[in-house]
Design brief:
Number of helices: 10
Distance between the termini: 23 Å
Number of domains: 2
Number of strands: 10
Helix content: 25-40%
Largest sheet: 10 strands, mixed
Strand order of the largest sheet: 3-2-1-4-5-10-9-6-7-8
CATH superfamily of the largest domain: HUPs
CATH class of the largest domain: Alpha Beta
Amino acid sequence: MRAIYATDLSAASEAAIENETCLECLERIGVETIHLVTVVPSNVHPGMPGMDLEGRRERALDRYRGVMEAAGFGVETHVVRGTPYRRINGIAETVRADLTIVGSRGQSPLANRVIGSTARNLARTTVVPLLVNRVEREDERPEVLREHLFQRVLYATDFSENAERAFDAFSYLRHATQEATLVHVESPKDQSETDPEERLAELAETLDGWDIETAIEVRQGDPAEEVLDVEADVVPTTTLVGSRGQSRIRRLMLGSVSEDLVARARGNVYLVPPPRTA
């Protein structure tokens, strides 16, 4: 597997990259090659007075490369200029990446109402599964909030086609997963003749066969709020969810469950997008 590791060379990115347990989890799920990507904003120039931007960038990337190579990964670095989420998606397509990883401090309640962070823009537009690796928000030297990335997974499903696609990610995540909680939130519009607990139980049987200790929950109410409540109760290391994708106009608006989880979840979020259309 090939992974894009997007970094803005901040303390948050460094914390995610240099955490040994996170790197071990990536190795367990089959990642062999990591493409370190940093995007230079178009309004930043190497000759700006008083700043050794190029030198700082090279030293940081060399340090990150050394950490990852010592952990057994093949590493390639990419320094590009432009809009971060667009360039990250472009490189992911070019190198045929299997997932993208980005560190995030999360957002304040007010900032959640504003579009702008790379993590949120990637959540709307990612072309491959996206891991948002959460780090502490306030500390100058932050640490990742939930180590052992996929050890305890909360899987949220509405039984849609893309939710099933997200569940399929367990085929490789299982090598790092010990526990899973499967949750479905019912709405008044649900018309299925199948009991949601039965459908979750069928999924749980698959995970049980992989020696993953599994629990199921059916909730009623607002999907994002209920999933976040379950996350607070079971404290997973990562929440796994599918995204139905957005139209070009819809990407300018807030509100989808997956975007809410990326913005508001306390731990990591693994977002699986729909397959790319030709």
